[in-house]
Amino acid sequence: MWQHLLPAAGLAPMRNVFSGTLTIDALLGDVHSLKEKRGVIKPILADLNRRPAVGAAEVDCQDLHRRVVIGVAVVAGSHWRVVELLDDCEGSVDWHPELEVLSVRRRVHSDEDE
Length: 114
Fold this sequence. Notes:
Strand order of the largest sheet: 2-3-1-4
Number of strands: 4
Shape: elongated
Structural class: alpha+beta
Strand content: 35-45%
Order of helices and strands: EHEEHE
């Protein structure tokens, strides 16, 4: 109803917002304490969080020294960009030799999803 007023006001029509999540379950290699685990995980999370439109955190197994579950969330204006960001984040975590990725769960949502 009011969308016809947007171009006259110099505003672009609203677009969809897409979000994606990645849950990475991994096993740590030669780690014998929670302090050593923090030393391995902290740089990985910092690398992920430096990326634009990405947020990452350790979301489970905080009390286990050889196991980690990393949660990643991304937001973008298109489905393909969310998929691209998730691929990049998954590849970045998988690249670290001190981690053995056990499983990855990926979800992509649109603001129009119910």
